[in-house]
Amino acid sequence: MNPRNVLRGSNAWLSAPSVLPRLQRLSIIYGVLYFLLVFTLTWVATDLNYGSSGVVGGDFLAFYTAGDMTLQGQALDAYRFDEFDAALQTRVANEHLGMMWQYPPLMFFLVGMLALMPYKVALWVWIAGTTVVFVLALRRILRLISPEQSERHMAMLLLVASPLCLMVMISGQISLLTAALLMIAAFRPKRDWLLAGLAAGLLTVKPQLGVLLPLAYIFAGAWRAFGVAAAVAILLHSFSILVFGPESLEAFLNAIVRLQSDVAGSGTHTPPENMTTLFGQLRFWEVPAALAMPLHVVLSLFVLISVTVSWWRFGGDEDRALFLAAITGAGAILVTPYAYAYEMAALTPAALWLAFDSRRFRNVSIVLLAAASGLLILRQSLPLDALIQIPFLISVLAFISLLFEANRRPVPASIAG
Asked: Distance between CA 409 and CA 22 in Å, rounded?
């Protein structure tokens, strides 16, 4: 593949070679300063409130509260909206939290450990831990697509300090961890079948993000990865049901049904704003759910078929490993009707592909990546989402750009090493 040093600088669109490195350093500095500001505000705040509606740690409040309920022997109450909301209100007096718990019982083990610590300590352990796993998954791919250590370090710094990753961190979400698992599961599953299968099995803590993986493994002939993933998922979830009782599975399934009803119905607790999906975009335009859902299903089938065909055609081609991971990650946040902007961390392989491996867009890759970052920043203060939601726009364009290059002849790669 012989990757070009596009992240560190390309003169295709700037005549001054020193401009790009400066912009990259400024981007990293901006990200670090913003991170330090949030870190400071976390500890300065006397309680868990940011103003009238903000919460220290954002959605982490849900994870911590579910963990605390687990330690108190009330784990299954987290699946009941009224009981869960009452538990949330004991920490933050806010009538509009709207948080629901819809993770499988397996998740109680992880959040229970977090609840052993004070809230703010647990928050930063959570952020640090998920970020480390994300960086390790990112490093694994970069080591195989980029021969230069300085280039790899710059890429990792730019991605971790990007508006997308910072958004996930400050929102307290699990998306850096799930994005890392998806990257590991979708990158070279035939060659690294044990690691890929383990990651895919663990990703079942958020199953909607891994819906494309079984088909990818089947059509690529990655049977060992498929077997490991199935075994890991069955063992872990069986153990959790054994610990929390068969009723935990029923409670989880009821919570999923309630979530789906809210998504496809009033959207009281799952508003369409900030979603990456066609369903969310259509509901944002106030299209009735009865029409929005069938249209979303049509797009989902197109994405599913496109990803499946890609794995069938290129599953055995090591030169296409990054492309396959990228199209799987991009497809994952379009297939499900329920995915918010923080799930865009799954686009990380697409960003790497754009910078290192694309041919059609390679000369302007830095422009496209900078534009995406700029839109994510500016939408916080400008009405950029008035016509079309930026998370949906970026997600769709990423997937389309991957499809455009599905038929190109790959540059010979050293990725097989």
From this structure: 34
- Domain for residue 42, yes or no? yes
Residue 7 within a domain: no
Does residue 2 fall inside a structural domain?
no
Question: Which residues, other chains included, contact 297 with Cβ-Cβ below 8 Å and sequence gap of 6+?
Answer: none
Alpha-carbon gap, residue 62 to 100, rounded angstroms = 8
* Total count of residues recorded for the chain: 417
Q: Please give the Cα distance from 333 to 187 (Å, whole number).
A: 17
Give the helix, strand, coil percentages of the chain, each rounded to 5: 70, 0, 30
Question: Token pair for residue 361?
Answer: 């867009």
Q: Is residue 376 part of a domain?
A: yes
Tell the residue number behind the tokens 């918010």, with chain if given: 340
Phi and psi for 83 in degrees, rounded to 5? -65, -40
Residue 171 and residue 60: Cα distance in Å, rounded?
Answer: 7
Q: Give the pLDDT band (50/70/90) at residue 48.
A: confident
Comparing CA positions, the residue from 399, 382, 282, 291 lying closest to residue 335 is: 399
- The domain of 121 spans 19-404
42 token code pair: 């976390």
Domains: count for the chain: 1
Helix (H, G, I), strand (E, B) or coil at 78: helix
The answer to whether 141 touches 352, Cβ cutoff 8 Å, is yes
Pick the range with the lowest mean pLDDT from 38-42, 123-127, 340-344: 38-42
pLDDT digits (tens, 9 = 90+) for 70-90: 999 999 999 998 899 999 988
